[in-house]
Amino acid sequence: MYRQGDVLIVPVEEDAVPRVVADLPALPRDARGRLVLALGEVTGHAHAVVGPGTLRREAGPFGTAWLHLPEGGRVVHEEHAAIPLPKGWYRVVRQREYVPGAVRVVAD
Fold first, then answer.
1. What is the pLDDT along the chain (108 residues), one digit of tens a residue?
2. Containing domain of residue 38, as a range?
3. 58 and 24 in contact (C-beta within 8 Å)?
4. Angstrom distance (rounded) from CA 80 to CA 20
5. Helix, strand, or coil here: 62?
6. Domains: count for the chain
């Protein structure tokens, strides 16, 4: 497993990736060519992946994101050290927090 700030990246064997993931639309890259895993609402900084691959996300605020890196890649962020990722599939989980009456994704 890999963690960068409030983002957890969990390796997944290819045969364990749900078939429905193939039907999810691939998310576009940002203006810098990165796959953005989480965007900081306050700072504008991003946890992002550089390198060839695709990112797909299930609907909803807590929808699971699925990252496929056929050649590997790196997770980058303006305030964290880069993390190299081997080629393969990953499940991306955003940290959540409880506030009275609700659960929400952690805001950066």
1. 987 877 889 999 999 999 999 999 999 999 999 999 987 665 667 889 999 999 999 887 778 899 999 999 999 988 888 999 999 999 998 765 455 765 445 555
2. 2-105
3. yes
4. 32
5. coil
6. 1
